Amino acid sequence: MTEVHAGEEAASQSIEQHLYQRLSKVIDPELGRSITDMGMIVSIEAVPRAGASGDATDAYDVVVQVELTVEGCPLSETITNQIKGAVFSYPDAKLTPHIEVSSMSKEKLSNLVEGLKEARRANPFTKKGVKTRIFAIASGKGGVGKSSVTANLAVTFASMGYDTAAIDADIYGFSLPSIFGVHTQPTNLNGMLMPVTAWGVKLMSIGMFTGADRAILWRGPRLQRSLEQFLSDVWWGDPDVLLLDLAPGTGDMAISIAQTLPNAELVVVTTPQPSASDVAVRSGLVALQVPMTVRGVVENMSWFDHQGERLRIFGEGGGERVSQRLTNALHYDVPLLSQLPLQTDMRTTAESGRPAVLNEDGALDSSELAQSFKKLATTLMS
């Protein structure tokens, strides 16, 4: 081997080693793990380009062979773009990336999934030292905007930089997929499901599997098993926040949540009128029977702004009544966390598949409603 060729080979090897280190910082957006740790980078080859005179230059073609977890991975473009970015930004030479994409063999994928499952057997949210804050959003009756509150609170957390997940635990009346504009099913990774990400939130709902027109007739053990599967058979990573949209009332799912996630904090949603607030108290009183803390009350549809005047269409005082009655019954402070206005945007924007607090670009809006949700999110995390 000539001295020139030996120098070129050493330079290429150095580039390949440094690129591998740089790619170790590329994170799979679904699994939350480094693509090198998961064996997705099969090889890196840096080939020097010849100059006009035939001499080698500091320019290289770099071929990166990537094996994705599944064929047609929905986020493959995101991963390859990050790889290209890591190659393009290499500081010591001019590199041109060439990405060759394929899929893992069944054996390799099986070993990867088993390793991931082994790392987080069963429910990952009850392990010692878990950092995830869990908020279960409840209401005494339907029609108070509980799911809208859940969805807008989730995207607010995400917009504030929190790694956010949401489970549509309203098995009978699931609505989060439509609010988020989700029409796809979760990716099945050898028996482990990957949540669908929409507007920055990792989302899971039974509605993604059944279709919106089919009724769900589950009770008892099967109902609880659906929740356990959402927690243990879905790869959530390590979210900062997990929101659960509960079914109205105090039925099986509310009790299952309390038993499965004793570290969850209950947030009770009501509207101002007595017929709603009186029933809302009952959902908070679940905490007397199970180990769950009631974090506070959110009063939705508190007023409607009309030509500079605040119209109290549904009366007033419901949130404060729920707060006081729960404080007295539970013997600790259950504050009124927020009063949210009645806005047609909450319905019309949600029907288009975008939570109302976001603008069309997916950023948190500057509206009064968005600022109210941001204040609520800040209060919950304090």
Described by strand count, sense and barrel closure, the largest sheet is: 8 strands, mixed
The CATH class assignment of the largest domain is Alpha Beta
Termini separation (Å)?
65 Å
Domains, number: 2
How many E strands?
Answer: 15
Structural class: alpha/beta
- Can you give the helix content as a percent range? 25-40%
Total count of helical runs of at least 4 residues:
12
- Tell me what portion of residues adopts beta-strand conformation: 15-25%
Topology-level CATH name of the largest domain? Rossmann fold
CATH-derived architecture of the largest domain: 3-Layer(aba) Sandwich
Across the major sheet, the strand order is 8-9-5-10-4-11-12-15
CATH-wise, what's the superfamily of the largest domain?
Answer: P-loop containing nucleotide triphosphate hydrolases
Order of helices and strands: HEEHEHEHEHEEEEHHEHEHEEEHEHH
User: pLDDT average, as an integer?
Assistant: 82
Subunit structure: Homodimer.
Domain MIP18 family-like: 17-91
Function: Binds and transfers iron-sulfur (Fe-S) clusters to target apoproteins. Can hydrolyze ATP.
Protein name: Iron-sulfur cluster carrier protein
